[in-house]
Amino acid sequence: MESVNLPVLGMTCAACQHHVEDALRSTAGVESARVDLMAHRASVVFDPTRARPEALVEAIRGAGYDAVLPRPEAGGSRADEQATSDHKPEAKAVTMLAAGALAMLLSMPLGGEMGAIDHALMRALPWLYALPPDLLRWMLLILTGVLMVWAGAGIFSSAVRGLRHGATNMNTLVALGTSVAFLYSVYATLLPASGHQVYFDAVLLILGFLLLGKALEARAKRRALAALDSLSRLRPVTARRIVDGVETLVPLDEIRPGDHVLILPGERFPVDATIIEGRTSVDESMLTGESTPLAREPGGRVLAGSLNYDGAVVGRAESLGEATVLAQITRMVEQAQSSRAPMERLADRASAIFVPVVLALALTTAAAWVLATHSLPLALANTVAVLVIACPCAMGLAVPAALTVAVGRGAQLGVLFKGGEALERLGHLDVIVLDKTGTLTVGRPVLEAVHSLADQDEDGLVRIAAAAEERSNHPLAHAIVDYAHGRGLAWPAAEDVQILPGRGLTAKVDGRECLLGNEALFQEFSIKLLQNVPPPEPGVTRLWMALDSAVVAWFDARDALRPDAAEAVAALRRDGLRVVMLTGDSVAAAEPIARQAGIAEVEAGLDPAGKLARIRALQGSGLRVAMVGDGINDAGALAQADAGIAMGTGADLAQEAGDVLLLRAQPSAIPAALELARSTLRVMRQNLVWAAVYNVLGIPLAAGLLYPAFHILLSPWIAAAAMAFSSVSVLGNSLRLRGWQPASLVQPNAG
User: Fold this and answer.
1) Bridge partners (DSSP) listed for residue 417
2) How far apart are CA 24 and CA 22, in angstroms?
3) What is the pLDDT of residues 662-718, one digit of tens each?
4) What is the pLDDT at residue 633?
């Protein structure tokens, strides 16, 4: 299977979104299709042996819309943004509204009976009332006809294309309403003796307010997508390559892995690189949310897009282009913003039938007014009001707008949501399960002591242990290797290394069978541990070592609690969540850490299968569980939990499991992610309620529900203004999340 992102032109509402999705899904060879109304983009997974991107474009065009193949340099992200923009609707909106106000003024002498406003206007503008009524009607007809073609051509052509393909959308309603009002007014102009009222002012104002709404909506969408745009702009387009001491400025595409790149103060790193010369501090806040400048020296890794503060450094290019962490983050944010939240399904079902239902209601309104009042002008005005007040856009944007802004804001804070479903699950939790090593603790334990039998060479044992552990990614393995490096030891490569998750490993070093792990591993291999060995001190993790099935040494390592762990746990408990710690470490190592963090429920000595069973047991009791782990060793538990939260390091995103990835390895980001998820769900609900209430109340008001009791009718142009601002209000409410700040987030300490 292959995937492609296609910019889609001509979509105006949720109904358009459904038409494009249906057209793509019905194309042979398409596995899945998802259309993003916010970014005007279709994400399609297809079988290249049965479908080609050109066929997908044709399918979209066959549905009455347009699409273009993404430019190669666009990298698949929001390609051809200029093509999807709406050619400056602000100017057209202002012109139409000004013309509508003028048309309303010119229509005053044509209104029949004169009221107080007419008398006041006649005194102020006597020349207006001196003009012949027929001349005023023809002036209004010409003005409205010309401006309808100039400003409304896109609206009418979209409606016609939709009808030609058997589809309806918001433009169908507006085009039908304005066309009926215009043609009726043309009839009244051609036959002035009929005495019918003209609605040219309403036509201009309806189109004006619609265009104004589109302009404000486009601006709000750009702001909602600003986080993704800012990520895309982080990577420079050129790099300073050094070859044989000569510096050359070259396009970024010419850089290859292993090239030496110079980065000056104030410049951004063009690639993921390892520092080989110089020292500096870097700002990775746009990537990880880490606001404190980070010191980097030879051997340190720096991510593409990071800002170099105060030192010229030379780095060796490691990852390029789409393989950089920046590209992976951008891709994850883009995919998450395009995803669907479960809450959106109700809105999808409503939007799918919205336009046909409104058309039926408009016909019912027209018939009811004609039968009740025998007044064609009243029936016309109320029918047009019903057509233009209905707004499927507000319903279609209610959930994706909030999701888009929240995902972008989360990325700025170092919290990557994998999609709308993950975010929604994160907002409904009962239990938070925390791993110990690397989650609550720093994850870099330090070897405190090496205990060897009297007849064994300590350096020789450390050398063998380092050889075996060198290929392991476990924090205790790093502790042994770091300890060996510190003593200046060298070792041969190990053979037949087998990692046993949650227990240890086996390997062959210098022809000897080496076993390194916890007590459970030694019991599994039926190797008896030494008697009369003092237990480890509280907070210390013990690792046993055997050679050729005989115990020869044990290593004691200590890990430190992260500075913000206790406050993070307290924040979770304040939110009413039950906090549990599951760890593969011994009780002696786990309980002191749990006490320092403020966790009462601790289960130690669990291998990955044990953690998985414990999470299933919690779920079996009806609880919704989130698991927080390192994303690799805890992959099974993360997948089993209702919500998996992976503590990332910013360097291995492709391997991370879970629904949420925390780019900063700080526990304080956990309650922040939960808070953002809950705030987002709150905004989604507000948007859905507002969109539903607006349409449920607005359409009956436009139909004349208040007329029998209060003689109140909704003018068509007022209905159009309400329609335009309904979707803008949903976007505006969603944009509040751009400035969201986590109340529980503890600012990271320096360094």
Assistant:
1) 660
2) 6
3) 888 789 999 999 999 999 999 999 999 998 899 889 999 999 999 988 888 888 888
4) 60
The gap from C-alpha 607 to its chain's centroid, in whole angstroms, comes to 34
Strand order in the sheet with 550-558: 446-452, 550-558, 540-547, 512-517, 504-509, 495-500
Q: Which residues contact 436 (CB under 8 A, 6 or more apart)?
A: 581, 582, 583, 585, 590, 593, 594
**Residue 418 CA to chain centroid, in angstroms?**
8
* Percent of the chain's residues with pLDDT above 70: 93
41-46 sheet: strands from edge to edge: 30-36, 41-46, 2-9, 66-67
The Cα 203–Cα 176 span in angstroms is 11
* pTM for this predicted structure: 0.77
Decide: 262 and 443 in contact? Cβ < 8 Å: no
Give catalytic status of residue 253 as yes or no.
no
Q: How far apart are CA 185 and CA 551, in angstroms?
A: 99
Cα–Cα nearest to 111, from 206, 208, 199, 203: 199
Q: How many Cβ atoms from other residues are within 10 Å of residue 329's Cβ?
A: 25
Q: Which two tokens stand for residue 36?
A: 């993003």
**Rounded to whole angstroms, how far apart are CA atoms 272 and 284?**
12
- Measure the CA–CA gap between 518 and 530, rounded to whole angstroms: 13
In the set 36, 80, 435, 585, the catalytic residue is 435
Mean pLDDT of the chain: 85
- What is the spatial distance between Cα 411 and Cα 288, in angstroms, rounded to a whole number? 8
Q: Is the pLDDT of residue 652 over 60?
A: no
In this model, does residue 184 exceed pLDDT 50? yes
Residues 13, 15, 19, 24: what is their CA dihedral angle, to the nearest 10 degrees? 60
> Which phi and psi angles does 442 have, rounded to 5°?
-65, -30
Whether 337 and 39 have beta carbons less than 8 Å apart is answered as yes
The span from the CA of 737 to the CA of 337, in Å, is 14
Could you identify the residue written with the tokens 């093509």? 83
CA distance 506 to 581: 28
If you search the block for the tokens 């790093």, which residue do you land on?
A: 478
User: What is the pLDDT averaged over residues 22-42?
Assistant: 89
Structure-derived torsion over alpha carbons of residues 676, 680, 682, 683, reported in degrees to the nearest 10: 140
| 425 pLDDT higher than 80 | yes
Burial class (CB in 10 A: 0-12, 13-18, 19+), 732: middle
Tell me if 562 sits within 8 A of 666, measured CB to CB. Answer: yes
Closest CA to 247 of 217, 267, 272: 267
Residues in the chain: 751
